[in-house]
């Protein structure tokens, strides 16, 4: 799919049970469309260059999201969620979101399983509430899952504003639902003078 510069798409793009898919361009998915791109149970997917509200990845493998701008203003407007997926790369993305900018979860919203090799690099994050980076709160408490090999490199965090003390953290690792979280690396993270919250929040 090619979304040309200057184009505005008033609809979602859903990649469901597919493989070898590319969504490219410099166009915009309309700001009123929640979950502008949804990648679900798919493999070998590239999303590059477009502007949208949200771009989620669930139950998928080998996904690259590059130079994508995510801007949301409505409630629960997470930017780039990862659910039960492996080998996901966010490179050069910009997230100004009304909730978490980027998350890594296990079982959630119908997706089941672990997460491995999730990376974000060369990116800019701005969270109106909740977290710029959030790891681990959702999983399968009855069958504990592993979230591992997660890395965040060369990131600028511009703002963080969250009133709930237990839900703060520019970089937050909350091992909920009996999740095991291991091999997490934060490297070269620059944090501006955020409005309200904590720099790091670890809850196990």
Please outline the major beta sheet.
11 strands, parallel
Instruction: Give the percentage of residues in beta strands.
Output: over 45%
Which radius of gyration do the C-alpha atoms yield? 16 Å
Unreliable segments of 5+ consecutive residues? none
The class by helix and strand makeup works out as mainly beta
Distance between the termini: 42 Å
Element order: H for helix, E for strand: EEEEEEEEEEEEEEEEEEEEE
> How many extended strands?
21
- Average the pLDDT over all residues and give the rounded result: 97
User: Helix content range of the residues, please?
Assistant: under 10%
Q: Note the overall shape.
A: globular
How many alpha or pi helices?
Answer: 0
Could you characterize the architecture of this molecule?
- With 204 residues, the chain is mostly beta strands.
- The chain has no helices and 21 strands.
- It has strands spanning 2-3, 8-9, 13-16, 19-25, 28-29, 37-40, 43-48, 51-52, 55-58, 61-66, 69-71, 80-83, 86-91, 94-97, 102-105, 115-127, 133-135, 146-159, 171-174, 180-191, 200-203.
- The strands form 3 sheets. Strands 1, 4, 7, 8, 10, 11, 13, 14, 16, 18 and 20 form an 11-stranded parallel β-sheet that branches. An 8-stranded parallel β-sheet has the order 3-6-9-12-15-17-19-21, with no helix packed on it.
- The radius of gyration is 16 Å and the shape is globular.
- 43% of the residues are buried.
- The model has no long low-confidence stretch (mean pLDDT 97).
